[in-house]
């Protein structure tokens, strides 16, 4: 136990000095294995872990979904989606902010990354709201919270990583994220409506013009059909997540080529960005496996499982404690770091308590989504501040009512698992 605590301190020290979380976990895990087993057996375990983790077929879905998102972004499809939503509902009081939320749902289904979604919305939706005299506090907050939808709405990269780390069906996770994602978006729109009604932070936009709205939607329809096709293929059991991701890449490439909205430079940039993101995620998955193996050899995981199965505490209390820990971690760490650190212990404990792995995955992603909005880290707020020039303090004050709504949605998902599990239970394959 003393060695374990010393290694945890070493891990914390590495993180303080800003060593990438993947390398920090991998190094600490390897040192722990070497102290536990000896250097030669530790190298043998390391070799097996690297092969088993990096050769998993489901990892193919990660670069494909990222490439699909990069192609559509480089092809200007995301900006057109935002403009179309603004044309349809931007004319009502608070409409531009609600259009930003609707656009964020579409972007979530495109990019799968909360920070990328926030950056895109800050570059396109925020200037439009500022031009229509929206308060910077509200406009920047909406951009920040809208970006978090990419954590839950499929094809979320966070859900893919959770599925790989816990060996949970990624197809079921994707389908399970639909209703919670739409529920969160509805809650955000409700908060905006209340703010627009009670304050002057969200005036009306331009008058509605049917012809302009229809024209703006023409370029978005193919993207919508692509998203329905990808998710529908998974839902109907026609294709696995990896196969659906391949179809998504092919479809997105066809769309941007037919619309002549991508250049060779844009195509090269998309491929490079997908490779960089994939290498980072695979490194996190592999190094997390090293750390998890160390925990297994020390029997820390076994001790936690035994405690969870024999303690007199209600299982709801243990779950609430785990959720609270994840929320606190979200204040200081990004979502992939939280998954890689917490899942080797939290997931086996949740399974020992009898919770559904798909439902638990949505709960976990919802907690890390909230962490993207909470200070002192609040990664989405930092991205929005950097893109818009609005002070961080102003953004965090604007986020408060949306953060309360996010917590309400989390409690609802905890109390009513059927909300999450209804759609996966209807899957054909």
UniProtKB/TrEMBL annotation:
A molecular-function term among this protein's GO annotations: transmembrane transporter activity
Signal sequence, start to end: none
InterPro entries according to UniProt: DctM (IPR010656), TRAP_DctM (IPR004681)
GO cellular component terms, semicolon-separated: plasma membrane
Transmembrane segments: 50-69, 105-126, 138-164, 170-195, 216-238, 244-262, 274-296, 316-333, 403-423
Membrane topology of this protein: Multi-pass membrane protein
Keyword Transport: yes
Compartments, record wording: Cell inner membrane
Record's keyword terms, sorted: Cell inner membrane, Cell membrane, Membrane, Transmembrane, Transmembrane helix, Transport
Keyword Cell membrane: yes
Pfam families referenced in this protein's UniProt entry, alphabetically: DctM
Occurrences of domain TRAP C4-dicarboxylate transport system permease DctM subunit (ranges): 8-419
Family indicated by similarity: Belongs to the TRAP transporter large permease family.
Cited function: Part of the tripartite ATP-independent periplasmic (TRAP) transport system.
Quaternary structure (record): The complex comprises the extracytoplasmic solute receptor protein and the two transmembrane proteins.
NCBIfam families: dctM (TIGR00786)
Protein name in UniProt: TRAP transporter large permease protein
Species annotation: Phaeobacter gallaeciensis
């Amino acid at each position: 136990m003393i060695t374990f605590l010393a290694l945890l301190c070493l891990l914390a020290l590495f993180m303080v000095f800003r060593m990438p979380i993947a390398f920090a976990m991998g190094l600490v895990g390897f040192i722990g294995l070497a102290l536990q087993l000896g250097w030669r057996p530790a190298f043998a375990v390391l070799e097996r872990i690297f092969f088993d983790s990096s050769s998993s077929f489901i990892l193919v879905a990660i670069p494909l979904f990222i490439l699909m998102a990069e192609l559509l972004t480089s092809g200007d499809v995301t900006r057109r989606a935002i403009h179309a939503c603004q044309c349809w509902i931007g004319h009502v009081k608070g409409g531009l902010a609600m259009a930003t939320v609707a656009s964020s749902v579409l972007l979530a289904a495109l990019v799968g990354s909360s920070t990328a979604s926030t950056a895109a919305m800050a570059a396109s939706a925020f200037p439009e709201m500022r031009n229509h005299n929206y308060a910077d506090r509200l406009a920047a907050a909406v951009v920040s919270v809208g970006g978090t939808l990419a954590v839950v709405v499929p094809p979320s990269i966070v859900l893919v990583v959770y599925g790989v780390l816990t060996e949970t069906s990624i197809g079921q996770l994707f389908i399970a994220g639909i209703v919670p994602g739409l529920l969160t978006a509805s809650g955000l729109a409700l908060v905006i409506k209340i703010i627009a009604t009670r304050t002057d932070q969200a005036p009306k936009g331009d008058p509605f013009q049917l012809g302009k709205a229809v024209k703006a939607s023409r370029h978005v329809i193919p993207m919508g059909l692509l998203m329905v096709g990808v998710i529908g293929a998974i839902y109907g059991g026609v294709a696995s997540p990896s196969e659906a991701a391949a179809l998504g890449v092919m479809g997105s490439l066809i769309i941007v080529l037919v619309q002549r909205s991508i250049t060779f430079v844009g195509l090269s940039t998309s491929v490079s960005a997908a490779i960089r993101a994939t290498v980072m995620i695979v490194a996190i998955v592999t190094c997390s496996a090293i750390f998890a193996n160390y925990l297994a050899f020390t029997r820390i995981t076994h001790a936690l499982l035994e405690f969870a199965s024999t303690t007199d505490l209600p299982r709801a209390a243990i779950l609430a404690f785990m959720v609270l820990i994840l929320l606190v971690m979200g204040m200081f760490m990004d979502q992939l770091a939280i998954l890689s650190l917490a899942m080797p212990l939290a997931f086996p404990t949740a399974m020992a308590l009898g919770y559904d792995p798909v439902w638990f995955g949505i709960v976990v992603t919802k907690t890390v989504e909230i962490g993207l909005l909470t200070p002192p880290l609040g990664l989405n707020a930092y991205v929005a501040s950097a893109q818009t020039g609005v002070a961080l303090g102003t953004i965090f004050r604007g986020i408060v009512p949306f953060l309360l709504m996010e917590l309400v949605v989390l409690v609802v998902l905890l109390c009513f698992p059927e909300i999450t599990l209804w759609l996966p239970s209807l899957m054909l394959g």
